[in-house]
Design goal:
2 strands, elongated, mainly alpha
C-alpha cells in the first residue's frame, strides 16, 4: 500500500523544464522590475526639475531628449 502512494505522488510530481518559469525566479525578477520603475521615476523627476542625469551608457538625459530615450527603450 505504501508503494502505491509513493507511485501516485511521483506520477503527480511536476517536472520543470528549462523553458518553464519557476515562481521563485519570478519573484526575484519582479523585484528588479519594480526597482527599475522607481529609478526611472526618480530620473524623470530630476529631469523635470532641470537636472541632467548620466545613464549607465554615459548618455546625458535632459528635458530635451528624455522623450526620445523613452521611445527608444520601448
Amino acid at each position: 500500500m505504501a508503494e502505491n502512494i509513493y507511485k501516485e505522488k511521483n506520477n503527480l510530481k511536476k517536472v520543470y523544464k528549462e523553458k518553464d518559469h519557476h515562481p521563485f525566479e519570478n519573484q526575484i525578477f519582479n523585484h528588479y522590475r519594480e526597482q527599475a520603475k522607481e529609478i526611472n521615476k526618480a530620473i524623470e523627476l530630476l529631469v523635470k526639475h532641470n537636472y541632467r542625469v548620466i545613464d549607465l551608457e554615459g548618455k546625458w538625459i535632459t528635458k530635451e531628449n528624455i522623450n526620445l530615450i523613452k521611445i527608444n527603450k520601448l
